[in-house]
Description:
The chain contains 14 helices and 23 strands. By secondary structure, the chain is α+β, with helices and mostly antiparallel strands.
Amino acid sequence: MAKAPVLTPRADDFPRWYQDLVGKAELADNGPVRGTMVVRPYGYGLWERMQQELDARIKAAGAQNAYFPLFIPQSYLAKEAEHVEGFAPELAVVTHGGGKELEEPVVVRPTSETIVNDYFSKWVQSYRDLPLLINQWANVVRWELRPRVFLRTTEFLWQEGHTAHATYEDAREYAARIHREVYADFLENVLAMDAVPGRKTVRERFAGAINTLTLEGMMGDGKALQLTTSHELGQNFAKAFETRYLSKDGREEYVWQTSWGSTTRMVGALVMMHGDDHGLRVPPRLAPVQVVVLAVKGDDAVLDTVRGIGDRLKAAGLRVHVDDRTDTPFGRRAVDWELKGVPVRVEVGPRDVENGTAVLVRRVPGSKEPTPIGALPEILPSVLEDDQALLLAQSRQRRHDRTVEVTTVEEAAEAARTGWARIAWDTLGVEGEARLAEQGVTVRCLVAEDGSVPESDDQPGNIAVVARAY
């Protein structure tokens, strides 16, 4: 009898494949309240590595970490009309606490622009206090109607940056810097993700912002996923919360602001962009475990060898796990590590010990070959870098192969069935964007003719990138 596949094939049912993989790779389970999730240790390990890499880049950009309360007075959100209107359908509101009805309902934070501004207005007095660059790692709640683990959940984890600046130009440049030096660099050089940098249309930008910069990625099924965003808030929140400073000229001025964030959605993106029918494929620079050393059988010579290999690879600076659980069948363990997408497996059995070799299994290209044990510390760092580069190249090739140039709304909608379309923004316009939205297709972003981020919505030559999205 043929062995049943571990995962539903992607080509048969991509959403089912995704759910299978999230569960069987032990990334997360559904929580007890609809739309929530329990992130399991392996999934959280991926998020921790993302946190570490992002946090280092955020601090290099000058921001410091802080923490703001989970509960926000409902009246705060009402101070910025566009913001409250944008978030109203997603809010979770607490009306009772300690067995009593609250004098004022409180909102479980959907994002923190309002409460941050309340404190910025106290902390900023003079131009000497600017720029004020703050980031926080936290959870937020947005009442999600169509939840999917990691991609859209009622509660999720994220970082959110909030900054105040003396001038429009300074704020604009800082939002662009975060977009470029933090997010784009992280996606390309750590997650090995091809991402299109662009500018959101007015219809798609963040509620309360004057501009939203985005990075859009193509998933394995050809749909788009918004990976990160960086917003120019202008002075909208500053005026609502009286966040002002005394300028060098002695005049009171409103600050200019930005906000920016990335979330546990990145874990879902990792699954959908790099996963295959055998499981995850984790980029080596991200992987909590870069190399797993497996004992095929449990005799002393094999166990001593795998433990020795593990020690030497750790000494070489690699993140290594030694799997010597020989009371669990080797085949089951190998499949589990393949599902988890560990970049390299080093498999050692009795015959390998005799020959002084190990079987080197590379998850990304799917290759398997005998390798001298003594050579492993020297060759594995370059193997991991090669596989990192291969994942990025594959994601770029997918977008190239599944993106078409079109000239009409109808052609754009048709192309979005299987991939992305590019159409001149002058041709599409807001009316064409609305027609696409009726068919479940959105303008993911605007890009300039040379692929850069446009300076404005109406910059000549702007191109709309059109797709169905998660």
